[in-house]
Amino acid sequence: MADPVLLTIDGDVDSPLKLTFADFEGIDAAFQIEDVSQIDPNRHGKAVTLAGMLVLVQAKPAAKYLGLHSSTDDFHASIPLEPVRERGLFIYAVNDQPLDVRQGGPIRFFIPDFAACHTDEIDECANVKFVDHVELTSDKGYDNRPLDDDEHEALHRDAPE
Ligand SMILES: Nc1nc2c(c(=O)[nH]1)N[C@H]1C(S)=C(S)[C@@H](COP(=O)(O)O)O[C@H]1N2
Ligand SMILES: [Mo]
Questions:
Q1: Residues less than 5 Å from ion ligand 2, measured at CB
Q2: Residues of the chain with pLDDT under 50
Q3: Cα–Cα separations (whole angstroms), residue 40 to 16, 64, 102, 130
Q4: For a pocket test of ligand 1, which of 43, 119, 129, 142 has the largest count of ligand atoms closer than 8 A to its C-beta?
Q5: Which residue CA neighbors atom 14 of ligand 1 most closely?
Q6: For residue 68, what pLDDT is reported?
Q7: DSSP code string of 25-47
Q8: Alpha helix (H) ranges present in the chain?
């Protein structure tokens, strides 16, 4: 059987992509971070940079928002692209194995230096786990991140461990 597609990237791009684990491993070393713990000691694994991904899909100048969608638990964020362009990461492997679901795998979006939850458009909540679809858009897209402490608490209470 063919390897499953882990991430689809489309929207305002000239070259949409569907990536399997092997595709992630094959991405140019210039677009890879070998060891995410060098950037954030609390995070581990190997990542492809958002900047690299934007080159691969040939993002159009019209792309202003980064949509991060998880169909696994119906969690969605849409954040301004410019401030995260050079620091966003897609973590996909630990010890050369696909990222475990407990760490947000198979693919986890991660912004080092995120703001505290719901204090900013680019907050910790935008570190979308099990992200399977990235859509670049000219306007803000669908976003169902928690808006306040109560919603946030409810989300964490219901989250599978
Ligand atoms: N798919 C998905 N991603 C998600 C969430 C979620 O509920 N589902 N919660 C978000 C929130 S609100 C926070 S604060 C962080 C928590 O990341 P952690 O579980 O690694 O601490 O993940 C974010 N990513
Ligand atoms: Mo959060």
A1: 117, 124-125
A2: none
A3: 30, 26, 18, 19
A4: 129
A5: 125
A6: 98
A7: HHS-GGGEES-GGGT-TT--SEE
A8: 21-26, 50-57, 149-158
Ordered by where they begin, the domains of the chain are 5-158 (3.90.420.10)
How confident is the model at residue 51, as a pLDDT?
Answer: 98
pTM score above 0.90: yes
**What pLDDT score was predicted for residue 160?**
60
Give the ligand with the smallest distance to the CA of 127: 1
Residue nearest ligand 1's atom 16 by CA:
125
- Tokens representing 134 are 């990235």
Q: Give the distance from CA 63 to its chain's centroid.
A: 16
Q: How far apart are CA 126 and CA 124, in angstroms?
A: 5
CA-nearest residue, atom 4 of ligand 1:
128
Spatial contact of 130 and 110, defined as CB atoms under 8 Å apart: no
